[in-house]
Amino acid sequence: MHAKFDSSNWRSSAITVAVAAAVATFSNFSAGAVQAEMVQAEQYSVSAADTEQASLTDPVKAGNWLAARNVQSDGDYDINVFDRLITEEGSFELAVNKTFAQSDFDAIKAVKGFEEFGNYYADDEPGLYQVGMVNGVLINGAQANVHFENASVVVTGGSLEGNPYVELGGIYQRGGVAEYTGESTSVKVSTTAEVDADGESYVYGYSIENPLGYAESQRRVTFAANKTEISAESTSANGLDAIALSVSTDATDNPTVDFARGDSTLSATTAAADKYAIALFMHNSDGNNGSGSVTLEEGATLNLVATGGVARGLHVDHGSFTSNGTLDIRAESDAENTTVYGIFAADDASLTFNGETRVFAQGNEAYALFVGVNDFADEDESAQMQHPSVVFGENSVTTLNGAVLVEAGNTVTLDGTMTVNGDFDLAGDLRGSGSLTLNGQKEEFGSVMEGAFVREDAALELDSITLGNVDFTNYGDVWAEDKVVLGDGAKFTNLGGVHANRLVLQTGGTYYEEDKAFINGLFFVGANAGVVEYQGGHVLPVTESLFKGYNLDEAGEDNELVETQLLFAAGDYDWETLRINMSERTEGARLEVRGGSLTLDTFDAVKGDASVTGGELHVGTLNASGKFTMAGGEEGSLTVGTFQGAAGGDFTLASGVMDVDNLDLANGRLTIAEGANLSSFSGEIFSTGLGEDGTAASAGSVLYGEDHLFFADGSTLTLRDAKYNIDYANSADDLLGNVEIVFKGELVDNSGEAQDEIDYGDVEDGKILAGMDIVASADENGTVTVGKSVGGKTFVVKNGTSVAVNGEEKLTVVGSDEGGELIDFGDAKNTMVTVNGGLALGVVGEESEATKGTISSDVTLADGSTLTSTNGEFTLKNVAAEGADITVGSGSLKIESFSVTNDNQLKGTLDADLVTGDGTIRVGSADEETGGAGTLNVETLEHTGIIFVDPAWVDDAEMKDGSFLTVQQLGEGGVLNADVVVGQNSTFVFGATKDAAVKAFAETGLKYGEDADVTAVLYVAKAITVGEEGSIIVDGTLSDMNDFERKAGNVTIAANGLAMIDAAALADAKVAAVTASTVDIQKDAQVRIANLTGGLDNAVLFEATDANGLTVADDIEFESNDSMINVSLKQDGNKLVYSTETNKASEVFAGFEGSDILQAIYDAGLNNTHSSDRTVAFLSNMAAFEDHGMSKADAIDIGNDAMALAAIGGAYNVALDASGLMNRSIDRRMSVAGTMNAEEGVTFWADVFATRNEAESLYGASGYSADLYGGVFGADVALGNGKRIGAAVTVGTGDAESEGSALKVDNDADFVGVSLYGSHRLGDFNGKVDFGYMHTKSDLSATAFSVKVGDEVAADAWTVGIGAEYLFNMGSFDIVPHVGIRWTRLDVDGYTGAFKTEDDTMDVFTAPIGVAFAGSFNAGGWKLAPTLDLSIVPNFGDDEATSTVRWNNIKDEVKTQVVDDAPFRASLGLNAQTGDWTIGAAYDLGVGGDDRLDNMFTVKARYQW
């Protein structure tokens, strides 16, 4: 800095000083925190009043440039060199293309008054000259209010003798207001100059810095061109700092920069490892009191790219930066000992992110986000206490690829969503109402702190936190208002405080608590400790072996969260003990099993409740010692080995089935409530059991009185004895009264002979004989009246044509494995079944097997009747529902023709070929106690009544959990004449399946739920016309039929309703997807279009046929996530239309090698994320990368990897490695090193090997690893005179996988080879030759963008090797130098992964050269020969795989290095010989560049015959 320091002191590269102070101090990282190094720099706070305004002298010609001095009255001056000077108001053309060379520099210095140009004076040196600047354009003075259209400025700097101090830029805005519009704005500055001796020179694109003196008025600049590019580049290895846009935000004029529209890119590049590359630099240059700003407006895009040296995308240490648009930041450097920052926020800066932000930081030490303090010397020490304000707003979506560091004392506010793909170190606070996902550090970003940390005294307080593959340690406080989710690979170690209303443990996720929280191995959990949801992960003590289970006890600490609960949704768990001693939960149960399995040795049910609605709960011993309630469901399995009652025990099975093998109720009480089912054995319930042959005629008495075992009316007892007889069944029925008893065994007579049918009259009321056919004879009218509740395998009608089930009674037909008629009328015609009570298909029971069956007769379900289907596949031909409740549990129910009158209720999934009638179908129920979701899948809909789709809300329910109506086509006339009401948590799908709708919704990125973005959905995959008597109402506020107000011919999408239209499924874009008399799209509704194609003009989404029938709110939310398509939506009269244009793939996905194919697909309008063409589906999904939660950079990397699938998946290297293993064994067999003695005759030999090969950066940023196992089996014969010939076969298998690649590829490989070889020894010289062939088959599996892109890849390697060696005998050991050359021809067959890929051929040459050492000695009758071989193996020839992919006639290709340069190989072995047998073992090590590390173990044997 200069001695005469004022507000002009940003010169003499104050930028360099400020950057050095702000950056270098954070380069040393230790123990998870940045240790600052003090950088001495002076700063002065000088106001405008303290300075004199400088004036610009008249320009003079100097070489090819103009030069002027900017002079203050005290004599201080800058030298400004420029091509264009703008000082007045107006619109100007701006086309500058200038080169600044040595001759220009010399010409300027030759002008009188400019002799100081290029000199540098330190702060403590007297002098008037300040800074020399060269700019293509200088905007100067308050009158400069200018507008540029399609501006272009190119400045190129050359090398300068002696490396003088010169600052080179594109545009320097010293004053005035500037606006840039048009198609493009381009400012490009580059230089080959080397840095001056003082390290002050730098290159910039656009500068709004503190001028000498001060700016006369506020400087403002607006970038509003369609495309803006500003770049600064230093190409010399000893070059300059490079800054694309530099703003002195402390300037007293409060300068502003506004990126108003379009796509803008700021890029800074330096080739100097120790210099800075900063895309956007907002800094406190001189300590003034100004506050400048940079704003990215909504709808605009800003790309910040910093490459090389000390790279930094966005640096803000003063002023305010606001992003309301799309912000992409990429900072990367391969320089060693440097730190890369995507976002750097320091001092009193203010940063606000309201839009989408994606940051990619890559380097030796790479931070996507840093928030801290510029820690360098300052006269005003209070400056060190300033902390930046960093806010991610409510609507922000942020992806950070790289590490995150928030230093102590700093706070970041997160109200939107943030994903961190990198390490995470929180020493300050991260707070807000948003959600955070931590996925761990990716290898390509560089190692930082290797994990995620919340430091002591730090706080992480958000709505939700999700951990991916990351090691997370908490020393501070973690608060999650909603939940903490641990995904695959997540390890959460809590050494501080964790407060989460829900902890979700997905497969591969583990939460660790301190050992002291586990008392006697049980995790002690108190009241209101939140929900722990098991989805495959675990909660463990730090010492894992201590874990035995849980103790939920309300005597523990009250954590003031939601009520304590253990919830099992997936995964298999085996614990010693679970103890529950808590009052019943207000909602749900203390223990809920919804999926997966939980196995307990002991379950101590002291007080509380549990439920098993899905999955499995297996208990060895259940100790019931207090008041406890257990509820089950049709999908759940509850089994108990021993139910042990205890004094004071009061256990109630409220619903579902509980299997108990042993029942001990000498103490306590077990109650089986109405609707519940106790499954056990007869001897556990009655004093007399059935016995093994099932012939006991009487049950005797009930073992326990009602004070110990109580069956409520309507409960069920299932007896699982292998055999039973009807007398015993009747006896048991007499003992238990109104209890339904189901016998699961085989029915036998009194002598034990099996029976397969029983007369209806012999079946007691309430009996279900699952293995028996019930035979009933019709009355004189041909009718069988079912006047009691009975059940059997089938119901056989003799001499009749109808069955009538009385009200209050239920007929159960279980069905069988082979299927057939469930109600069998024999050969009778025109048969019918009338149900006034209930008809049940299948049977509930833990050991019930799924059955099949059909009812071909006409079935009438009268008003008030019920139809249930459970645990089977059932088909009904014709059903007339006149007001029935239909419930489908597990299994499936299909009705071929379904006629509906009156009011009917459906829960579960019903498939119908045809639906007719004018009644009401309620799909799903919103009843709080009995509600549930329903799905009605209709092939053809001719219904004219109401279909009301609405289930009850369920916490954490996803879209797939709601109610659905799917319709494939409409009946006669092709119009919808029914009223379809899509209420809360419901979806109407037309022309597609439920799965397709769920997938399409997932791709929108919207949130679904009661308080989320979407509460009801319409998905249209085929054009639909609503008739004058029909309607579609999509309104998530509707939960009751009484709230529905019919509007004939209307379609309404209400607030938080979503209309999804699949454009690819619509035949004609000019035909509306939805046509109705009136269409009303209301405020806060949303519209999404899937599979957009380009080039559409006014394609129709909705059309109203009535005049003025279309109403569209101004603020409906509409967007497309397809980056290849620009789309706009507008109302055109009575139509809601959209138009599209296709972007250029090469621009959108710059760096993607398959852009030609991508462009061709979109130009042809064939893009479709669900296409059967794998390439089309893959690239369409890639274009919609945001739907898959990834950045564009990640999508490009995945795309390139997919193009080179065989290379990335290791198919090439597996073939080369397998061939190399074969060749090594052959070469070793022919070598004279360690052979001990000449062998005569025929020798049989074998090498069995296991190897781990890896080269983790062989492919650039990625590599491979492979585990190969196999053997080489050979035989050879000595021909005399030192000659030997032989042959060998190689077989093996292995597993390989990509390492560090964007696309994860697994490789299941097999290989087989054959070799012919020969050697000729002449004295101590030995010559070797071999010919080989290796065939490999690599089964590659990979999934990208939800598309499976794997395939089987075959490769053939042909190889010829020639070698020579010479043996020097040194007495007790030999020295054998050797040399050779090998040619390998590798042919890789074409395959179809994400792309059709053509055959590829490589010619690889290796020339190993090395020396072997071999000893020989005798020990215990064995002759031992240790060997050591050291070799260098240079490779030449082809080293890159060429992946040529094609689609139709379009080809693209990508090259991938697959061969190392010159790896080093060492082999250590030992051979032992006794008699004709020789055995041995060897270890081989290979190391080299590209992180090459090979380890091979070989066991050898040979026999001489």
The strand count comes to 120
Total of DSSP H or I helical runs spanning 4+ residues: 11
Radius of gyration computed on alpha carbons: 40 Å
Low-confidence stretches: 1-51, 375-383
What percent of the residues sit in helical stretches (DSSP H or I)?
Answer: under 10%
Terminal CA distance: 89 Å
**Which outline best applies?**
globular
Question: What is the makeup of the main sheet?
Answer: 70 strands, mixed
The whole-number mean of residue pLDDT values reads 89
Structural class of the helices, strands and pairings?
A: mainly beta
Beta-strand residue fraction: over 45%
What does this structure look like?
There is one protein chain. With 1505 residues, the protein is mainly beta. It is 7% helix and 52% strand. It is built from 11 helices and 120 strands. It has a 70-stranded mixed β-sheet that branches. The protein has a 19-stranded mixed β-sheet that branches. 55% of the residues are buried. Mean pLDDT is 89; it is low at 1-51 and 375-383.
Q: Concise description?
A:
Helices cover 7% and strands 52% of the residues. It has 1505 residues and is mainly beta. The protein starts with 13 loop residues before the first helix and ends with a strand.
